[in-house]
Amino acid sequence: MKQNLLIVTEHYPCGTQESFLENEIEELKKLFRVHVVTLDTERQMSQKLPKDVVFDRPAEKSGGLKRAFLRMACRFSNGYKQEAALAKAEGRFTPAYQKHLLNTLVKSRLIYNYIRSQELFEQEAPLLIYSSNFNDYLYGLCCLKEYAEDIRVVARCHNANMFNPRTGKRRETMNGAINRLVDAVYFASEHSRQLYLDNFVEPGEDISKFQVARIGVPGQEREPLDPLPEFFLRIVTCSPTEPDKRLKLVADALTQVTGGCIEWVHIGTGSMQQELMDYAKEKLQDRKGIRCRFLGRLTREEIYQYYRDNYVDLMLSVSAAESVPTAMMEAMANRIFVAATNVDGVSAVVDNDCGMLLPADVTAGQLAKALDGFCRISKESIARKGERAYRAWQEKFDAAGNCRLFAERLAVLSGQSTEEIEGERREAEEKKNAPRASVFSPLQTPAARADIHEMPLSFRESLKADGLLSESDALEEPPFQTGAPEEEDLSEQDASLPDGFFPEEPPVGMEEPEPSEEPAEPAPEEPAGEPDAPKE
Q1: Read out DSSP for 141-192?
Q2: Residue 406, SS3 per DSSP
Q3: The whole model's pTM is what?
Q4: Is 234 exposed, middle or buried (0-12, 13-18, 19+ CB in 10 A)?
Q5: 185 Cβ partners below 8 Å, 6+ apart?
Q6: Please, where are the H alpha helices in 377-417?
Q7: What secondary structure letter does DSSP report for 405?
């Protein structure tokens, strides 16, 4: 019998956050009975869970009176006393820290009580609890271990769990207590792991439980697309429209481009969506040869469909902070060259061999200069970068390998043997490949409930193959036939650039240049990065 795995999330499957779980769950459900609990009580589900996964969440947020009572109780808890004593010894027991500590303990108690009330917690089978974030509620999950020896708690830790991406301020999450109680903490890169060890682990502590487990994204089969003409560039940004993504910087840079024509496509939405659209319109509406399109939120399947149908030269990220760069990995899996600011763990995904690292504090002028360079280099050079990005994805970020390995590591931690893991995986594959049984019994066939002449011939033939119709019934033609309606074309509309949008001749600048006696400088073969861009 499969063991229970409880995944606790901040938002998934509601919203776009924690999208890496979508890939992990496909492998985890082969080895565990997967349950997902989210703390997001407001938004509706926006991502589809596999049918074998159980989903639940608190019915509503806890009221102020209940939280006030819990704050009073938590003030006398052992967790509060221990953390307060440690903070006092280190000179950081300020009123702000005291308030934060109580809030952390309240969140921990709420999730602790909620999971204690779940039916799976009462089952005798071993339980593995996996938190998708190293956040304030994690201490409460660790405290659940006191109920049984076969309960394990693990968590993923992202850069945003350690430092606020907007302010850069260090986050305090009862790290000392959690470091002692948690069974394993997983980081997406060695950079993130070392950042945690340097800032949140005391000298002498056992660091074997802090491990790297790369996330991954799937690839896809796609036909090669014809590139846009030389000097024409299509760039994609894919992120929430939030302040730390600095998307206005892209619009500012496009106003300074002088070397070609660019279409900017943005995928994603957020709190600044309308503000960004208005800003881009104001900045770019009078710029000849510049076009921007906002596609809104797309699922991963829709993003991959866009990449299948549209040639993209470059995926661009100018974010001030990056927790889990899955959008960059998805672009690389589709042979798209990525240029990104060198922040947080981005350099673990993109480097100047398979992409281009921009300065962390890149300016609009620097970005415009880089875009000018991309417009001028050959499409063959950009394609070679895209191929190197694809090979980097194959080696490091392929979900098929990374997620399988991660699932097996969790299974071993929960006590499963190698034989049990192989058996569960084999059973899952057999179940996946097993032929589907007919959904009809002879007494429930449409033939028993309706005139068989009204059924499409193809449907009657399928019923005959299942032994539910006689050959004469299946082959008999209906009294009359009507033409089948044409299928609606669901492909992306207006996917290509409009006729006449760009000048017919490849421009040297946005405006017609004055004749010059000086010879033009030869175009560089390939972008080597900004002069002041850090190299790996």
Answers
A1: HHHGGGG-TTEEEEEE--HHHHB-TTT-PBP---HHHHHHH-SEEEESSHHH
A2: helix
A3: 0.76
A4: buried
A5: 134, 154, 155, 156, 157, 196, 209, 210, 211
A6: 379-396, 399-413
A7: H
Q: What's the CA dihedral at 282, 287, 291, 292 to 10 degrees? A: -20
Q: What share of the chain is helix, strand, coil (3-state, %, to 5)?
A: 40, 15, 45
User: What value does the CA radius of gyration of the chain take, rounded to a whole number of Å?
Assistant: 28
Contact criterion met (CB below 8 Å) for 156 and 132:
yes
Cα–Cα distance for residue pair 142/184, rounded to 1 Å: 11
State the Cα angle at 211 between 207 and 214, rounded to 5°. Answer: 165
Tell me the three state secondary structure of residue 398: strand
- Spatial CA neighbour of 218 closest among 321, 307, 347, 155: 307
| Cβ–Cβ < 8 Å for 115, 128 | no
d(CA 163, CA 341): 17
Q: What sign has the CA pseudo-torsion 216, 217, 222, 226? A: negative
**Burial state string for 25-55 with b = 16 or more CB within 10 A and e = fewer than 16:** bbbbbbbbbbbbbbbbeeeeeebebeeebee
Encode 46-85 in three state secondary structure.
Answer: CCCCCCCCEEECCCCCCCHHHHHHHHHHHCCCHHHHHHHH
Torsion angles phi and psi, residue 233, rounded to 5: -130, 130
* Cα–Cα–Cα angle for 13, 18, 22, rounded to 5 degrees: 65
State the burial class of residue 131 (Cβ atoms within 10 Å of its Cβ: 0-12, 13-18, 19+).
Answer: buried
Nearest to 320 by CA among 162, 135, 167, 536: 167
Each residue's pLDDT tens digit in the chain (536 positions)? Answer: 689 999 999 999 987 789 899 999 999 999 999 999 999 988 888 888 988 899 999 876 777 788 888 888 898 888 888 888 888 888 888 998 899 999 999 999 999 999 999 988 888 888 999 999 999 999 999 999 998 889 999 999 998 899 887 788 888 889 989 999 999 999 999 989 999 999 999 888 999 999 999 999 999 988 889 998 888 999 999 999 999 999 999 999 999 998 889 999 999 999 999 999 999 999 998 888 999 999 999 988 999 999 999 999 999 999 998 878 899 999 999 999 999 999 888 998 999 988 999 999 999 999 999 999 999 889 999 999 999 999 999 999 999 999 999 999 999 999 998 888 888 888 877 777 766 544 444 434 444 434 444 555 555 565 555 555 555 554 444 433 333 334 334 334 344 444 444 444 444 444 433 444 444 444 444 444 443 443 33
Helix axes 95-116, 78-89, angle to 10 degrees: 150
Structure tokens at 389: 């990005």
Strand ranges, E, within 268-420? 290-296, 314-317, 337-341, 355-358
Instruction: Return d(Cα 511, Cα 83) in angstroms, integer.
Output: 64
